[in-house]
Structure to design on (389 residues):
């Protein structure tokens, strides 16, 4: 297969993919991969396969194609191709919650500065790195990376990147409990979709709606949360976007739990858990298990709650997700206080404070811990934050 034919087949695959005929598109691209003798064409088709597998939640396949793409980039001996392939490798590891590897591959990208293309990719590299630091609960570095990504987006007038960064910032502020900002950023992302997103993939709309739903739920605006989450789920189902379906099911479950409707929440958690397990989103699984634990606590089934905590703790320790561990120690503290088991209670109080220290989650002005309850925060240029009050 020559250069022109390769190009035509890649376009054919893209057309099928955009009209939701994913499996047909994959078959066309795989055929190009087998038959094309054009390295640049092979590189591009691998990029298409990586994106498609990412959106379907087939992260292990995504990683497999990213590794092949690096070999192709080396064959092409072009720093731009190499930077792009390392970014795809970083992203694949980010999706598989291998955060240390993600950070390491992102640093490789930043050290390989080729030409203008690599400079345009810097924003995406910073975003991926920020998501990885957030997965490890290293908040100051995560914020630094997101702000850097936002600067690249503004300098290159890259509205799609800006939209993605705003969603990540929404997630960031939801985790440290500044719910005003957790809502502000996804609303900004939704505005960008409305103003510039006519030709964009619908996943940008779905993504912003999902993050708005999370913030609305945290603010207790449950009807608004339900509306946004339904909108996001509708697009996720249309597009066969398994990762987003799992997140929406988790959000639905959290909304029902906030309404104390445990009977409706538990099956949603179960459905979310089975997709999270299938795609390998271990960070998502920790969130699901936290929700399930809270359901058992509402029903005063404390031993079942402790079983869920044990599973979640194993995952959080494996990933290095310190915020997950902090929340689990906090729940254990409540359970053992109710059970009157003083020794276990003290143990978890100590571990909780160790987590707060480790994450540096306290205000430099008033000394109180950050992230215990909803509080407006202000970040300094050095990315340290303090209570706005």
């Amino acid at each position: 297969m020559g250069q022109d034919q390769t190009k035509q087949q890649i376009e054919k695959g893209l057309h099928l993919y955009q009209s939701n005929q994913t499996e047909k598109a994959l078959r066309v691209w795989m055929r190009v991969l087998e038959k094309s003798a054009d390295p640049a064409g092979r590189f591009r088709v691998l990029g298409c396969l990586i994106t498609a597998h990412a959106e379907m939640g087939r992260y292990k396949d995504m990683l497999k194609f990213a590794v092949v793409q690096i070999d192709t980039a080396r064959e092409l001996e072009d720093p731009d191709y190499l930077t792009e392939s390392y970014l795809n490798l970083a992203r694949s590891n980010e999706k598989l919650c291998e955060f240390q590897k993600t950070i390491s591959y992102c640093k490789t990208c930043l050290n390989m500065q080729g030409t203008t293309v690599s400079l345009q990719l810097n924003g995406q590299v910073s975003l991926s790195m920020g998501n990885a630091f957030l997965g490890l609960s290293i908040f100051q570095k995560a914020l630094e990376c997101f702000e850097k990504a936002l600067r690249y987006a503004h300098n290159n007038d890259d509205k799609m990147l800006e939209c993605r960064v705003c969603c990540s910032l929404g997630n960031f502020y939801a985790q440290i409990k500044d719910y005003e900002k957790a809502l502000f950023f996804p609303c900004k992302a939704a505005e960008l979709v409305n103003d510039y997103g006519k030709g964009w993939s619908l996943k940008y709309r779905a993504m912003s709606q999902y993050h708005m739903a999370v913030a609305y739920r945290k603010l207790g605006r449950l009807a608004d949360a339900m509306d946004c989450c339904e909108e996001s789920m509708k697009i996720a189902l249309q597009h066969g976007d398994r990762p987003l379906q799992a997140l929406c099911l988790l959000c639905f479950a959290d909304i029902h739990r906030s309404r104390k409707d445990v009977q409706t929440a538990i099956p949603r958690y179960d459905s979310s858990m089975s997709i999270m397990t299938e795609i390998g989103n271990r960070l998502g699984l920790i969130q699901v298990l936290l929700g399930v634990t809270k359901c058992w606590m509402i029903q005063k089934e404390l031993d079942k709650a402790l079983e869920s905590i044990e599973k979640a703790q194993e995952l959080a320790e494996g990933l290095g997700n310190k915020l997950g561990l902090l929340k689990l120690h906090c729940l254990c503290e409540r359970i053992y206080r109710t059970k009157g088991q003083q020794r276990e209670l003290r143990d978890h109080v100590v571990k909780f404070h160790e987590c707060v220290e480790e994450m540096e989650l306290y205000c430099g002005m008033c000394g109180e811990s950050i992230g215990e309850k909803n509080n407006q925060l202000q970040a300094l240029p050095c990315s340290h934050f303090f209570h706005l009050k």
About this structure: The chain has 18 helices and two strands.
